[in-house]
């Protein structure tokens, strides 16, 4: 007798269900999409314990005929297509007829539905893919599905579920995206009986975005309206005032379906190229309408990804179209090498030398954090060493010295390098002659070995980073209550993450309270963040948490935060510096542990060696 046997129906269903039902959020997505297909204009989603205990979705759509109640749970049973060609003219979200059967094979289900043509409804209970009971009930028109005990019969899969807050994070992300895709539908999302999200359902995308993502994002959006032969783009994109540390706020909808698509993602990022700081991602709500014949939604069983034919055209329309919009919004500043040249188109404000000095002082960490120390004119060395501590030194040596030997070791200075009044000596006994600033961005010096060109922004970033790090780890660093708490609007997904890491954030010195909805109030920050852009730093932190999605490692987060702070506060390229400022910057740089690489590991200086110069000039 042969050994090959057909699997029993319920086992086969459980296996294929794995493709559709990955986690509670996948169930929520399928149920919501069914409600949308049923033309509901109110959808309520109630979740208990991140969906592992209960998922309940209720709509006011067309409802299901009593005779179809059982059929809806059969595999490949659908009312949406009749043959394969229909998927190319598809205007519903579902079509595979797999969702309900898959869900019912891995969870316990109760469905109550009343078809719009009927006077009463029907209730059906299904456990393990089998009908437990079916009876008429009184109810309103529409459908209500309760899913309990997900993966109760497949313990191996249950084990893969993440914490309640992570699972709920996935759910809220999906509900948010669907709500943004359908502003005409009112969505309500409750978690453990708390309302997390309510959209107005008034058909206005901007009001819906406001409800989901908060005021700051809603106030910084630019409308998109682009039409091409094959494709229509609508929606909103963020201006360059707002950005995120991850792709969490890049939302794409193809023919109203929230999707992931590489072409669209890279086209958008091309449009924003160099308009946002490195490592920052735009906020985008982009609706792409294409003829269904050019889209294949059948790539992924959960229909999360789509493929375009005519990829290149779609890429170009998106990247060029958005770039044009962004350019009109933000004229790129022209950096003038000659600062006396009064170019009318130059959008950079003129800065007086006093202003420059002032801002430079303000930007120098020591002057803001510890005025006392600055005023009693200690030598740089004293000031630095007072901030050194073991932890910091250990950190730096572990991190950098391995790859980049310290400056002193790298350059072998002979003592007979002649120097005159024109020369300066750094604390580390490195002699240099300051030559000048070029292109308002780079400082040039002559040293014994050649000419060095130093990037002023990267150099300052390195100095600030080391100082901030030392300060952060020193005992002086205390928490500072903010006089005016900073209000931050979060998306439901971000809110969940922030709550999850509340304790760790507290340990970092960030104390906040719930302001209701998805808004938090930052009440205390580490004193070194005082006067800094708390909002950006916190947003950056949250973005990183979302991106990493792993347990918060305090040391890593600290580093991320300080890097960001250093980068934000460092003097920018394009800013003229006078001789004294330049020399101070160079001296400070040469005292750092690694004057070659900024904290983001971009190079700080390049050298044209004396030998090269001599060779080039035929000496
Ligand atoms: P699909 O959506 O791919 O057709 P599903 O398994 O998700 O497959 O649903 C099966 C069928 O059940 C649908 O085709 C639809 O007729 C019906 N159905 C499911 N959910 C609802 C709902 N909320 N309202 C009305 N009909 C529904
Ligand atoms: Mg469906």
Please explain how this structure is put together:
This protein has 619 residues and is of the alpha+beta class. The strands form five sheets. Strands 5-4-3-6-2-1-7-8 form an eight-stranded mixed β-sheet, covered by helices on one side. Strands 9-10-13-11-12 form a five-stranded mixed β-sheet. Strands 16-17-18-19-23 form a five-stranded antiparallel β-sheet. Strand 3 (108-114) and strand 4 form a beta hairpin. The longest helix is centred in the middle third of the chain and has 19 residues, at 311-329. The relative contact order is 0.09. Bound molecules: adenosine-5'-diphosphate and magnesium ion (MG). Adenosine-5'-diphosphate binds next to helix 2 and helix 3. Magnesium ion binds next to helix 2.
- Widest beta sheet: strand line-up: 5-4-3-6-2-1-7-8
- Distance, first to last CA: 92 Å
Rg, nearest Å: 30 Å
- Oligomeric composition of the shown chains: single chain
Largest sheet: 8 strands, mixed
Rounded mean pLDDT score = 79
Number of strands: 23
Q: What is the topology?
A:
Blueprint: H1 9-20, H2 24-37, E1 42-48, E2 54-59, H3 99-106, E3 108-114, E4 121-127, E5 130-137, E6 142-148, H4 155-159, H5 164-181, E7 186-191, E8 194-198, H6 205-213, H7 215-218, E9 221-227, E10 231-238, E11 250-254, E12 257-259, H8 262-271, E13 284-290, E14 295-296, E15 307-308, H9 311-329, H10 353-363, H11 365-369, H12 371-375, H13 380-387, H14 390-401, H15 407-410, E16 423-425, E17 431-438, E18 442-447, E19 450-455, H16 456-473, E20 479-489, H17 492-500, H18 502-507, E21 511-514, E22 519-526, H19 534-548, H20 554-569, H21 579-591, E23 605-609, H22 610-616
Parallel strand pairs: 1-7, 11-13
Antiparallel strand pairs: 1-2, 2-6, 3-4, 3-6, 4-5, 7-8, 9-10, 10-13, 11-12, 14-15, 16-17, 17-18, 18-19, 19-23, 20-22, 21-22
Helix pairs in contact: 1-3, 2-5, 5-6, 5-17, 8-9, 16-20, 16-21, 19-20
Bound molecules: adenosine-5'-diphosphate (ADP) and magnesium ion.
Residues 30, 33-34, 94, 99 line the site of magnesium ion (MG).
